Amino acid sequence: MTQSAAAATTPATGTVTIRLADHDFDSLATALRDAIAQLPEGILLDGRGGAPVVNDPHEILRLFGTGAGHVAARDWATRRGAVLRALETCGVPVACISSGPAFGPGWEIMLAAHARFLDGEAKSSAPRDLSLGLLPGAGAVQRLARILGVETASSLLMGKPLDGAALETAGLWTRCETGAAETAAKDWLAAAGESAQSWDARRYRIAGGTGATAPHAAKSFALPAIAARGRGHDCDPAPLATLRALYEGSQLPMDAALAREAQITAEVLTAGVATSRIRTFVVNKARAEEGAARPEAPRHEVRKLGVLGAGMMGAGIARAAAEQGIDVILLDRDRDSAERGRSGVAKALEKAVAKGRETDENANATLSRIHPTADQSDLAGAELVIEAVFEQTDLKREVTQSVLPHLAEDAIVASNTSTISIDTLAGVLPDPARFIGLHFFSPVDRMPLVEIIKGRDTSDETLAAALDFTMQLGKTPIVVNTSPGFFTSRIFCTYIDEAMAMLAEGVAPALIENAARMIGAPVGPLAVTDEVSLDLQKKVIDQAEADVLDARFLRAHAKPVVERMVALGRLGRKSGGGFHDFPEDGPKRLWPGLAEEFPSAATQPDVEEVKARLLTIQALESARCVEEGVVERPADADLGSVLGVGFPPWTGGVLSHIDTVGATVFVAACDALADTHGDRFRPSAWLRNRAATGARFHEGETP
Predict the structure, then answer these.
(1) Where are the beta strands (DSSP E) in 548-683?
(2) How confident is residue 57, by pLDDT bands cut at 50, 70 and 90?
(3) Which residues touch 495 (CB under 8 Å, ≥6 apart)?
(4) What does pTM read for this prediction?
(5) Nearest to 136 by CA among 197, 84, 194, 200
(6) Phi, psi of 19 (to 5 degrees)
(7) 190, CA 20 to 30 Å: which among 51, 364, 428, 590?
(8) How far apart are CA 238 and CA 264, in angstroms?
């Protein structure tokens, strides 16, 4: 960018105007130096068209994604803070114009101005840095505390939105009518506005006080810290680090506060949590949704979809497709069964309308695109047919084979199976190249992931079409190769099976569930098993035995618990009770009968051991999937684990977790668990070799 594009002098006022949208943060630093060197009468920062992202996740991942020392991270944070510190101490008044969300891109830059003007209305918002495991950058924590007061700053930093009126009252900006902010800012500059920040004055004190003796100390520091620990159990360092930066920095002069904030920022950047989350949720999720795994092939659009089976999954897939404008043939064994599936969608849409998540018009349009039927000839013209019947090999093959005469020769056929070999199911097609797995997750309307499973004969054209369809639905796809349980079901089963093994060993069920929540799992393993049902687990185990799978897929350490619960008729929520009771008048609770069926041992393990078992077994199984070629791209493993089966999001996913811990440490932890709990924890020679060579799963993947 030329200097004339970066900064233009207005002769009438001697004001230098800098359009923030024209810059990234580094070029903004250059533009600010150039502007200050001109000794202007004032500087106007125009952020109405956007602004540099101060905490650029791509830059953070590039610099720190494969590890960095504390000194390098601290120096990086210090340099960025120095840019805005130079602006606010440049000796001339600085005004900033902004529009849109209060805490949109570049909001940190706005805080360094001496006067801030909002062009039009502001949407209710709060900083989003915590969602990526970060502190707001370049001294924003310190400036927010000094502008709004510590109590309001704490609330915002912890994610509670404030509307524009409240922010104006608190002093964040002066709101102007749309189009009037520039004039107001220039008038302020022309009137020789303040050229120094209030916090740089001698004897400055933050209004409302700060530190442990402030009247709001509990509300600003203690209660948010307790809440953060309750949600994250210290797995994610960012919330407590932000509160530390606020607590410590607000009691120091500005330069010392910025230095302390840079130290704390470095601690967060080098912990690995932020970079793992950025890699998965920002970079790799976007890449997946843009078709990173898509082979070269013609684009494929589904206008008519066939769904075989109108149960919960089939109806959910039908709704997801119909919401995207696709006509859906919802086929079942009889018309009544198909109608029930459509009625289920209608009820779900009614609830969405009642809660304001959907409009009547859109709901009616969605429902009008779902056509329940028992007539297979209605499938004629469907570009894609998805089988979504019970998880039984013979049934799936029979249903798929029965509709083939009604499909075009180039129609793609898919199965929603979660465990059964794609090669086995594809065997009913004359051309198995057009068969693929499309594993949706329940509930389909809320779960963002689709696991696409390639068979031995699946063609590139079929894979490309499956990815196009998934993206047409607005879902996040991952691609894996067929194997028993594929990827997500293998990881999920290790999680629930380890819990059932512990239950059989005499580990208290409450300890198991609480330990799972302490590692950041959204649902405890016994609770989630109740949701997916124990009779389904028995069917999966029985099918694996019928298919004569390798012993490691037969889930022997969990099978006795599954069979006992099924024999008792406690199948989970759908039967009214499983590991938990589900009373109509209150929340679910652990079934007291577990104490008799699986008596707790007199000596209970330490909670850290239980946490380690639940976390490690999933990550280890993921590494095995890479070793066996089930997963070809580490990004798919991470996305599949956090979006599909609830692996703790703070980790960034199963393989990012191993990279963060370090392969050597991870292998040693596995060996220690194997010595105590069995060879299912024993690492392979392949993984040991990776540890010995220092290999990372995400080496070289940073942007």
Answers:
(1) 580-581, 589-590
(2) very high
(3) 521, 525, 528, 614, 617, 618, 645
(4) 0.91
(5) 84
(6) -80, 110
(7) 51
(8) 9
Closest CA to 381 of 317, 453, 304: 304
Average pLDDT over the chain, rounded to an integer: 93
Contact yes or no for 523/646 (Cβ under 8 A): yes
DSSP state of 388: -
Quote the CA–CA distance of 18 and 36 in Å, as a whole number: 11
589 - beta bridge partners?
581
Question: Given this model, what pLDDT does residue 701 score?
Answer: 58
Task: Kindly give, in sequence order, each residue whose CB lies less than 8 Å from that of residue 191, ignoring residues fewer than 6 positions away.
Answer: none
DSSP state of 436: E
* Tokens coding 54: 């101060």
Residue pLDDT, tens place only, 526-564: 999 999 999 989 988 988 888 888 888 889 999 999 999
Residue 248 to residues 88, 243, 254, Cα–Cα distance (Å): 22, 8, 11
How far apart are the two ends of the chain, measured CA to CA in Å?
Answer: 23
Q: Which helix (H) or strand (E) holds 174?
A: strand 174-176
Q: 135-165, pLDDT tens digit by residue?
A: 998 999 999 999 999 999 999 999 988 888 8
Are 200 and 112 within 8 A, CB to CB? Answer: no
Q: Alpha carbon 566 to chain centroid distance?
A: 34
Which conformational region is residue 646 in: left (phi greater than 0), alpha (psi within -120 to 50 degrees), or beta? left
308-361 confidence digits (pLDDT tens) = 999 999 999 999 999 999 999 999 999 999 999 999 999 999 999 999 999 999
Pairing of strands 589-590, 580-581: antiparallel
According to the model, what pLDDT value does residue 703 have? Answer: 53
Rounded CA Rg of the chain: 29
Q: Which residues, at least 6 apart from 441, have a Cβ–Cβ distance to it below 8 Å?
A: 447, 449, 450, 451, 488, 644
Q: Which amino acid is at 542?
A: D
Pinpoint the alpha helices (H) of 207-250.
217, 223-232, 238-249
DSSP 685: H
Tell me what pLDDT residue 700 has: 64
44 with 16: CB under 8 angstroms? yes
Tokens of 576: 């009214």
Strand intervals (E) in 48-122: 94-98, 115-119
Task: Please report where in the chains the tokens 């580490």 appear, as a residue.
Answer: 634
Q: What is the distance between the alpha carbons of residues 117 and 185, in angstroms, rounded to a whole number?
A: 7
Q: Cα(31)–Cα(29) distance, rounded to whole angstroms? A: 5
